[in-house]
Amino acid sequence: MLLSKGVDVDPHGCRGTPLHLACSNDRDQVVRILLEHGADPNKVVGHVLPPLMMAYCGGSLRCMKLLIEAGADVNLIAPSGVILAQAVCDGSTEIVKFLLEVGADPNIPDEDGKIPIMYPAFNGHRELVEILFPKTRPVSSLPDWSVDGIIRSMKDLFFKPQDAAVVEKKIADAKSQGKEAFARGEYPAAVYFYTMVLENDLDATAFANRSLCWLRLREGAKALLDAQQCKMIRPRWSKAWYREGAALSLLKDYQGAVNAFTEALKLDPASLEIKKALRTCREATDSLANVGRSGEQNP
């Protein structure tokens, strides 16, 4: 109603525009309304990812389709790179097929000079190489331009060890961008940057931070997986156990959460945050037990 009265459809704050927020939260009906009222599907605000990348990070193919129908540029080069390269690196086969169908260009290099087909070739992901191959222009340094030839050659020709200082800078930059994105409430973007960190360094703090992002996005299973990865790396870190407890609580496994929070409290007995979480889950467990007993008494 406000939009029909001329309210600005693209006001932006630290978390981007309303379109950015709707895309990241899979609100396809809201995205449709905003686009119908003139929202810019290519708007980039500061370090906020473009709407199309926000929709991808939020796991919303429906929003991606709406954005592209409204003119979103599938080849937009943002600070995070192009969306096709990200989908390829994530192994998202169906998204890659979709992007190619709507005009994504597999010949755009990233900041390291690598084109999308090189990543699945290096990782042995033959299906993705076969999908990208027909639309990728031959690389002159690869005389055997075939699916098998690309896979055989990629490690030696294009993935020589990087200078340690370069890798460390990439990790530091990604950590900083992840922290900034989280502070702005851009949780899908923060997930993206912490994933970049983990691609180069299996860092316990990055797993803990990404787990927290998943918690804010209400993705309990993903939050739990990252918390458990964190715990494997640093089993004596209270935050790892705390993240596990929070994820289990979100998944309504209150007894499991009680167990995790109890371990966290052993490692950090002074933490009021852990004590509060433990108390809450114990109350939830007791409440469920009381409901169960009541049901048994009242058939």
TrEMBL record:
Q: Where are the transmembrane segments?
A: none
The record's annotation in InterPro entries points to: Ankyrin_rpt, Ankyrin_rpt-contain_sf, Cul2-RING_E3_ligase_SR, TPR-like_helical_dom_sf, TPR_rpt
Q: Which domain of life is it from?
A: Eukaryota
Return the Gene3D superfamilies for the record.
Answer: Ankyrin repeat-containing domain, Tetratricopeptide repeat domain
Q: In its UniProt entry, what is this protein called?
A: Ankyrin repeat family protein
